Please model this.
Amino acid sequence: MVGIGFRPQFKAELFLYAEEVDFLEITADHFFTKSKEKRDELMTLKNHFTLIPHGLNTSLGSAEGIDEKYVEKIAEIIDLVNPPYWSEHLCFTKAGGIELGHLAAVPFTNQMVDVFCKNIETIRKTIKIPLILENITYNFVVPSSEMSETAFITKVVKDAQIGLLLDITNLFINAKNHHFDYKQFLKEIPTDKIVQFHFVGAFQKNGIWYDGHAHAVNDEIWEVLDYATAHTDVKTMILERDEAIPNFKELTNELKIARDIFKKYKT
Ligand SMILES: [Fe+2]
Model:
């Protein structure tokens, strides 16, 4: 199954090419407004596609716990679309009541594993649909870290009994910027717990790679996606294009390449 992250910019074209899109990821936060227009949009999408909500601001890495009002909003969207699972990030976005406005990396510590476990347990009281967690990019490893990123991911997966969303582009970028081998990364994490991939193009500036979500998928990222498809139990993939969106036909070409890779290993 290969789908795309829904963006209102291509709403009209999406329906012209509906047969080339297996499912949609929706950014849950974009539908928190109860305006009739957004609710109608959500219901129209739901009537044509399986929708997977993707949260941005649950802040599962916040030591002070999670914002219950935010969880209620996510829960409402999940109730409306009834997805097989939903996703969030291995990060924090709030600290001491302050909104950071971006996905911030957590220190890879045992204490932080416990924070994730506790917050996930809290969420599960309200949201019964399974949650999967996504790896993010980071500029540097937080100095107080006690273990590698792969050991951290493995421990969260084991202790919280949770699945993963592997962002192929984030893996590629981190591997480039922090000089590690993505194949080794995949050897060290529980690849049988990977449910979904994200993928999109990346760009390089002054020797550093960035996830602008604004470029066609790079050849090197296709290579990572191919390798990761062969070496994980991935079930679904989402093209995550946010900016500089080309005509939809171009995006469906990328969906087709991903679908061909998926079929090569998973039929
Ligand atoms: Fe992503």
